[in-house]
TrEMBL record:
Gene3D superfamilies: Electron Transport, Fmn-binding Protein, Chain A (2.30.110.10). It comes from the Bacteria. It holds the Pfam family Flavin_Reduct. It comes from Paracidovorax anthurii. Residues 30-181 form the Flavin reductase like domain. This is Flavin reductase (DIM6/NTAB) family NADH-FMN oxidoreductase RutF. GO terms for molecular function: FMN binding; oxidoreductase activity, acting on the CH-NH group of donors, NAD or NADP as acceptor. InterPro entries: Flavin_Rdtase-like_dom, Split_barrel_FMN-bd.
Length: 211
């Protein structure tokens, strides 16, 4: 791919008129994205575990995580009811189990059991974390925002934000006290109907900010 702007041709489109391609490129361009593998407990005590591909960190102090629920799903209802959730790191080893928790099942179905995963009691919140995951962050809801278009029309998508109140890291991933992202096995959601990426040492490069 040339870096010369005069040597490039562009496929340009306005999303409201369609993209004109076999698959919407939006998810592939804004990616790969970390996966929000979110565990919650409903008001009745039922457990829920589901992955969200619109997920990220939004603040350092206090640390805030957020994910977007496209549609009013069980996770959203549980966070609305209880104000708590846990983010669990999805790794390559856990990819198939994570994928199982995508299944569209009734609210009373326990996705931990469905995917053969072990719920592990959290420290400060009621929802458990995934015992098999090497990293988890317990969160308390700060905001739930229904998104809207530029014209002010509400869309059926809700951004759920939560303050991280407890963090759990497998000590094997701490190298001289520094979290070893490259060897943690993170998986990331890419574009297309089934594409994912992994992170490994071969992708690492370092670049310091100018002073």
């Amino acid at each position: 791919m040339s870096t010369d702007p005069h040597a490039r041709t562009f496929h340009s489109y306005e999303p409201r008129h369609g993209h004109g391609l076999p698959h919407d490129p939006f998810n592939a361009i804004v990616g790969p994205r970390p996966i929000g593998w979110i565990s919650t407990r409903g008001a009745t005590g039922a457990l829920n575990l589901a992955p969200y591909s619109f997920f990220n960190a939004f603040n350092y102090t206090p640390p805030i995580l957020g994910f977007a629920s496209i549609g009013a799903k069980d996770t959203l209802a549980n966070v609305e009811a209880t104000g708590e959730f846990v983010w669990n790191l999805a790794t390559r080893e856990l990819a198939e189990a994570m994928n199982q928790t995508c299944a569209a099942v009734p609210p009373e179905v326990d996705e931990f059991a469905l995917a053969g995963l072990t719920p592990l009691a959290s420290r400060l919140v009621a929802p458990p974390r995934v015992a098999e995951s090497p990293v988890a962050m317990e969160c308390r809801r700060t905001q739930i925002v229904q998104l809207q278009g530029a014209d002010g029309t509400k869309v059926p998508t809700w951004l759920v934000l939560g303050e991280v109140v407890a963090v759990h890291i497998d000590t094997a991933l701490l190298k001289d006290g520094v979290y070893d992202t490259a060897n943690a096995g993170h998986i990331l959601r890419a574009g297309g109907p089934a594409d994912y990426f992994t992170v490994g040492p071969e992708q690492v490069f370092r670049m310091f900010r100018p002073r």
